[in-house]
Amino acid sequence: MGQRLLDKLKKRKEPDSGQDQGEKERGSIRLAHFIIRRKGVIESIFAAGCIFSLLAMLFVNVNYDLTEYLPASAESRIGLDKMEEEFGYPGTARIMLKDVTLYEAKQYKDRLEAVDGVDQVLWCDSTVNIYSGEDFINQKDIEDYYKDGCAVMDVTFVEGDTAKSTSKAIDEMKQITGDKGYYVGMAVQNKSLTENVESEMSLILTVAIIMIFVVLCVTTTAWTQPILFLLVMGVAILLNRGTNIFIGTVSFLTNNVAMVLQLATSMDYSIFLLDSFTRGKGEGLDDEEAMVNAIDEAINSILASSMTTVVGFLALVFMNFTIGFDMGLVLAKGIVFSLLTVLFLMPAMILKFAKWNERTKHRPFLPEFNKLSSWVYRVRYIIPTIMLLITPVAYVAQGMNDFLYGNSAVGASEGTQVYADDQMIVEKFGRSNMMLALFPNTSPVTEKEMSDQIEDLPYVKSVTSMANTLPAGIPEEFLPYSITSQLHTKNYSRMLIYIRTKTESDQAFKCADEIQSIIQTYYPQGSYLVGETPSTQDIKSTITDDYNRVNNLSMLGVFLVVMFSFRSFIIPVIVMIPIEIAIFLNMAIPYLEGDTMVFMGYIIVSSIQLGATVDYSILLTNNYVSCRKSMGKKDACISAIKLSCPSVFTSGTIIILAGYIIHFISTTAAIGDLGHLIGRGALFSVFLVLTVLPALLVLCDRIITSNEWDRLQKFLKKRHDRRVELLKKGLKKMAGYGNAAGNEPMEVNGDEV
C-alpha cells in the first residue's frame, strides 16, 4: 500500500515540477519566432486591413444629437419617437434680420420661405397686414417679431436638423440675408458643430502629431525612431477608425477625440518593445535574436499596461446614457488594435528600421534624473502630508461643480458664431425657448382650455395649437393642409409653446415641469412634452446616475488587474491612491475657478485618467520591487524613480500635450473641456506618481516586498513540508513492517514526495 501511494505521488509530482514554467517560456518564445518567421504574411494582413479601413471609414455615420443617446425608457425619448411617428421631426431655426423695415422684412421672409428645404417661416405677417403701413399697426401686437428695425422669424425645415437638405437650405438663406442675418436654433447648432469639428480636428491631429514627434525626438536615441513609432500608431488608429463601420454610427465626440487619445495613451507599448530590442542589441545579440528576446521580455509589461487602460475605458460601456457605450467601446477597441499592431507589426518594422536607427543615432537628450530622484526621497514626508491636507478639500470641491448637460452646451458654447448670434437676438427680443406638447386628439374643447391655461403663464411667450388658431365654429378643413398637418393627425395633437428662458437653466427646468403638470392634468395618458429643455432634463438625470456606476466600475476593474499583476490586495490600493488624488484635484479646479463644465466630459475623463495614467504607478511599483531585491529602501526608491522617469515623462508629456492641443484649438465646449481635463489630469498624475507614490512605497515597504501572496505561499510551503515529513515517517514505518514480513525494503525520496 505504501509503495502504491509513493508511485501515485511520483506520477503527480514529476511532470509538474518544471513543465509549466517551460511551457510558458516556450509559449512566449514560440510566439516571437512565429511573428518573425511570418512577418511578410503579417505585413500583408495589416496592409489589407489598412486598405479596408480607408474605404470603410468613409461610410461611418457621425451623430451630433445628444438626445439620440437617451435610454429608450426616458419620457422625452418616448415623446420624440412618438412625435416623429405622427408628425415627423423637422429641423428648426430662428433668424433675426437687422436694419430692415417691415416691408423689407416681409420681402426677405417670402424669399426665405421659397428656399428648397424650408417648410415654412413663421412671422407676424400671419396675424397682421404688413402692407397697411407702420402707422396703422399696433407696435405692441408685433413687438415679439419686429422692433427697433429688427425682425425675428421662426423657421421649420422639411427634414431634420442634421439632414443635408437642411444644411444646404441654411447656406442659401445666409446668402439671401448676407450680413443682416443672425442664426440660432438646433439646425444651425448642428451645422456649425459639424463644420467646426471637422476643420478643427484636422488641425488638432496635425499639431498633435508634430508635437508628439518633437517629444519623441527628445526622448529617443535615434532620429528615425519617432517616425517608426508614429507609423505603427498610425496603422492602429486607421484600423480602429475603419472598424467603426461595424458599430454603424458613432458620436461626434468619439469620432474626433478617439484618434488623439489612442495615439497618446498607447505610445508606451511601442517604447517598451523598442527599448527591450535596443538592450538586446547592446548585449551583442543579432537582430532576430534581439527581437525574440524583446518580445519575450516586453509582452508581459505591454499586456499589463494595456489591460488597465482597456478596463478603464470599458467602464464607460455601462452608462445608461449610451454615448458612454459608444466612446468606451471605440477607445477600448483602439487600445486592442494598438496592442495587436505593436506585438505583430512593429517587430517587422523595427527590423526594417534597424539600420536606419543605427545610422541616425544621437546622444540621449534626457538627463539621468539623479537630482530629481534624490530630492523626491528627501521630501518623501512633506509632499504626502500636503496632499493629505489638500485631498479632503479637493474631494468636497469636485462634488460641488456646476455642470451643463444638453445640446446647447455643445453646439452653442461661448466662442462660436452661434453663441454670438444668440446674444444679439436675446438682446433685442429676449429668449425664446420652444417646447412641443404632444397629446391625444380627442376633444377640441379640452385642447382649447389647456392651451389658454398654458398661454396665461407669465413666462410663456406664445402658444400655437389648432384650438387657438382655428376661429370658433370654423371647421378644420378650412385651414391649409400645411398648417393642419403640423398640428393634428388622426390620433394626436401637437402644440408649439415658446417660453422666455434659456434652453438649459434651473428656471427652464422649473417652467418645463409646470407645463408638464398642466398637460398631465388634461391628458393623464399618452401625453408628452418634448424639446431641448425636457431632453436636457432627462440627460441630466440619466448621466448623473451614471457617474457613480462608471467611477466604481473603472476603479474595480483597474483594482482587479493590478491585484492579479502583483498578487496582492494592498498594492492596488497603494498604486491607485496618487491617481485618485490627481482626479480629485483635476475636478476641483473648475469649481475653485468658478467655471461651468460639460458633465459629459467630467464623467468620461474620470475613467480615462484612471485607465491611462495608472500605468505610471504600476511601472514605478514594479521598478521598486525589482530594485528592492538587491538594495535597501532608500537606494531602491531612488533607483526606481530614475528608471521610471524617462517612460513616465515621455508618455505623460504626450498625453498632456494632446489634451491641451485639443483644449486650445477646439471651439466646441464639450471637446475643449474634455481636452483640458485630460491634459491637466495627466499633469497631476505625473507629478503625484513621482512624488507621493515613492513615499507610500517606502512607508509600506514590508507589504510591497512580502505581500499577502508571498506570505500565503510561505505558509503553504511550510505546511506542505510538515505534511511531507509526517508522510515520510509513516511510509518508512510501513516499509519497516513490509521488511519484517520478508518483503524488500522501500527507498523513499523526499523530493519525489
UniProtKB/TrEMBL annotation:
Membrane-spanning parts: 40-60, 201-220, 227-247, 298-323, 335-354, 375-397, 598-619, 640-662, 682-704
Topological category with respect to the lipid bilayer: Multi-pass membrane protein
Highest taxon of source: Bacteria
Subcellular location: Cell membrane
GO cellular component: plasma membrane
Residues annotated as domain Membrane transport protein MMPL: 163-359, 493-716
SUPFAM superfamilies: Multidrug efflux transporter AcrB transmembrane domain (SSF82866)
Keywords: Cell membrane, Membrane, Transmembrane, Transmembrane helix
Name this polypeptide is given: Membrane transport protein MMPL domain-containing protein
Lineage: Bacteria, Bacillati, Bacillota, Clostridia, Lachnospirales
